Amino acid sequence: MMKSKGAIFDVDGTLLDSMPVWHNIGELYLESLGITCEKGLGDKIYAMSLEQGASYLRKEYHLEKSESEIIHEVLKIVDDFYRLEAPLKPGVRKILDWFRNHGIPMAVATSGNRELALAALERTGAAEYFQTVLTCSEIGAGKDEPEIYLQAAQALGCKPEETLVFEDAFYAACTAREAGFPVIGVYDESNRRFVHQMQEQCICYCDQIEECIEFLNTDGIYRE
């Protein structure tokens, strides 16, 4: 048995309720232009890159803008959302307080943009809880590779097996688990189709993040 000595948190879908802006960005952008979008646009755009999405919007809605202009304007909407609106998910402050009260250091590991993630975390008062913030772009590898988790654990002075990872995305949870981290899964609507798989991969899976406190308060800060 090994006592957990650190915790690593994903941002989008785990700490922040920010995934809807990415799912609805096409609709939000067209609305800003006074254009009504097709039904199901969010599902279609969500799977595309920014470049692909911009191309689709330009062609399908006959926009008299270049793809680079569309991308710039879309990112401005996203930028404003993180800086002004993106809320913490329910129970986040409670779980962060739990770790701080137990003297367990915490890190952020995000595949998102550092500036936007920090803007939202600082605005909501969550940034002060974390010893370090790492991003995939700075690390040079996505969450399909374990490097960001390994570097976050190293920054906390912890080994993988004694560092809890909080994730909402199935593929990221799998990466962390395969690298030796105990993973706590957090439900997010954007990943609802993977709930069963997450339950199998994680030492604890919760609909809202603070639900894992009961698990942590019993024997959850240990793993075999």
TrEMBL record:
SUPFAM superfamilies per the record?
HAD-like
Q: Under what name is this protein listed?
A: HAD family hydrolase
GO molecular function annotation: hydrolase activity
Which keywords does UniProt give here? Hydrolase
Please name the InterPro entries in this protein's record: HAD-like_sf, HAD-SF_hydro_IA, HAD_sf, PGP-like_dom2
Pfam assignment, any one: Hydrolase
Organism field = Blautia difficilis
Q: Does the keyword Hydrolase apply?
A: yes
